[in-house]
Write a structure and sequence with these properties.
Oligomer: single chain
Mean pLDDT: 76
Number of helices: 13
Low-confidence stretches: 1-62
Structural class: mainly alpha
Strand order of the largest sheet: 1-2
Shape: flat
Largest sheet: 2 strands, antiparallel
């Protein structure tokens, strides 16, 4: 059991870092309305805000299935957990149903858990019911660890964005001085300028752009956030290396013909060593897609990377005899 709990905590951290919850359909509830299925828990989601989160904040939770649907899904998940022989496979099962676990709140969650335990005891006896309770506890531990990590990261991202916005709006003697202050901040926060932070900024941009009415202030803020976004992308690009930047640019082309033409032109100029470096990246990306269990990657993105990978392989095979 300790081994499973350790694996769950590690996997929940990975999911919260990777932004897995981004695919969940959300609706808003007050924090005080959200309860642990068996015991009180911490808030599930924190409202968007640049700074500390107060006790009166609103939080977002996924939309819920009907009681019967949720109970059926939860029962199937618990049965799958009990059937697993290798504890290392449990986190992947839980991650696939993260949207369900995040809705196991309030009285419905408590009733579902209790109903399943009672039914199990009636049909299989106390020993099987005890195992079912352990499986339920595992799901709750996983969800709590995920939410706690996601909340910490979300809060940290909001605070970092707040720092950047304050630096950009500071009353400095000159624009050059303000730019230098921003450079210093980015240098100090280099380790925190992650892909997760970039997703956070993009989320804020989407939230403002989707507002029913765009004011001058919100339009100005959106423009500022886009500038920050571009700067973070630049910083991340420096860390990733040229090959990763090129791959990102290739993926950005909507036209397959245009994408492959740019790739061919680039390989003609850069040669075999650069082609090998790109091939390593596409192979790593495709391997990563296969390993993802929490949420299926975008099929279009997978197809684009596969196309680039095939053309790189063809280029390497055709030109290897000339080396």
């Amino acid at each position: 059991m300790k081994q499973i709990c350790t694996i769950l905590k590690m996997f929940a951290l990975v999911l919260s870092l990777s932004g897995t919850n981004a695919f969940l359909p959300l609706q808003t509830k007050r924090k005080s309305d959200i309860q642990h299925p068996i015991r009180q828990s911490q808030p599930w989601y924190l409202a968007a805000r640049y700074g500390p989160v107060s006790d009166d904040e609103f939080v977002e939770v996924p939309k819920e299935d009907s009681f019967a649907q949720k109970k059926e899904r939860y029962r199937i998940l618990l049965d799958s957990i009990l059937a697993v022989r290798d504890p290392q496979h449990v986190p992947s099962l839980l991650a696939k149903d993260m949207d369900l676990l995040l809705t196991m709140t309030g009285n419905d969650g408590s009733r579902i858990a209790q109903d399943i335990v009672d039914e199990t005891r009636s049909q299989g006896g106390d020993e099987l019911a005890s195992k079912m309770e352990e499986a339920i506890d595992l799901t709750l531990t996983f969800a709590e660890d995920f939410v706690n990590q996601a909340s910490k990261i979300d809060k940290h991202n909001k605070e970092l964005l707040g720092k950047i916005l304050r630096t950009m709006s500071a009353k400095e003697p000159s624009s050059r001085k303000r730019e230098e202050s921003l450079d210093d901040l980015f240098s100090k926060e280099r380790e925190n300028l992650t892909a997760g932070f970039l997703r956070h900024v993009e989320g804020e941009c989407e939230r403002i752009a989707a507002a029913p009415q765009m004011t001058k202030e919100s339009a100005r803020l959106l423009e500022t956030l886009r500038i920050i976004q571009a700067r973070v992308v630049e910083e991340l690009g420096d860390d990733l290396g040229e090959a990763a930047q090129v791959l990102g640019q290739l993926i950005g082309y909507e036209s397959s013909a245009e994408r492959l033409a740019v790739l061919e032109a680039g390989l003609t100029v850069r040669g075999m060593s650069f082609a090998r470096e790109l091939k390593e990246l596409t192979a790593e990306a495709l391997d990563g897609f296969q390993r993802v269990t929490a949420a299926k990657p975008d099929p279009e993105l997978v197809e684009i990377v596969q196309e680039i990978d095939r053309n790189l392989l063809s280029y390497l095979e055709d030109n290897s005899k000339f080396e």
